[in-house]
Amino acid sequence: MAGVMRSAATLYYATYLMLGGVESAAGTAMKSAFVSTSVVGTIIGSIAAGWLAKRYRAVSLFKNINLLLVLVGVVMFFVPPTWLPVVFPLYFLVGFFHQMYQPFKWNMMANAADYGEWKFGRRITGLSYSGNLFALKMGMAVAGAAVGFSLGLFGYQAGVTAQTPLATMGIVGLLTLGPSLSYLLLWWLARFYKLDDKMMQTIQRELSMRQQQGHSETHLPLNAVPEKA
């Protein structure tokens, strides 16, 4: 949800606030560089996620990264869009941290599937992933619709060089505060997620023991000959 909202607002932010609504070859190059800054951040964030996962607890990383994204978004809201030496690094950090927590999110989904099997004796991988993907797609749809609705509500006018102060604030908010609220919600929800590394080690160990017991009790070796009565 946060990524869709920010991506949808990026070109409005770059065109009307960073460039003042004036189209030029230099402006087009600047917008491309601005978008690329976030893309580079996501690439480096993916690499950093693997390094951090080996050294810190995944759930703690997930929560802390979301708080950092909230902080960066709030700071960026108050930075004038024309301060390019500040805006570019902040947008890089947004891409960096946003992509960094993605592997931990999918890992938490897998852990939930293992927990379901451990708790109820049934594998719920399909249910877990389908439910999460439904929520993800629904969030993306809501975020995309919210951007268009909000732009109209704030009085945005396409093609107008100088947007109204309310429209300007709305565009900045969609790029910064809107995603920050989503990250804050993720942080709050993650507080109720109790499948930390220690508990998952216990769950995986017990699941492995159950599988070994089930195999030894229900399966004969391939070359075994049943005893005659």
Automatic annotation (TrEMBL):
Q: Does the keyword Membrane apply?
A: yes
Q: Which UniProt keywords apply?
A: Membrane, Transmembrane, Transmembrane helix
Listed transmembrane segments: 34-53, 65-84, 129-154, 166-190
| Entry GO terms, CC | plasma membrane
Q: Which Pfam families match?
A: MFS_2
Q: Where is this region: Disordered?
A: 207-229
GO BP term (any one):
carbohydrate transport
Q: Molecular function terms in GO for this entry?
A: symporter activity
Q: Which family does this protein fall into?
A: Belongs to the sodium:galactoside symporter (TC 2.A.2) family.
Return the protein name.
GPH family transporter
Its organism's taxonomic lineage begins at: Bacteria, Pseudomonadati, Pseudomonadota, Gammaproteobacteria, Enterobacterales
Name the gene that codes for it.
yicJ_4
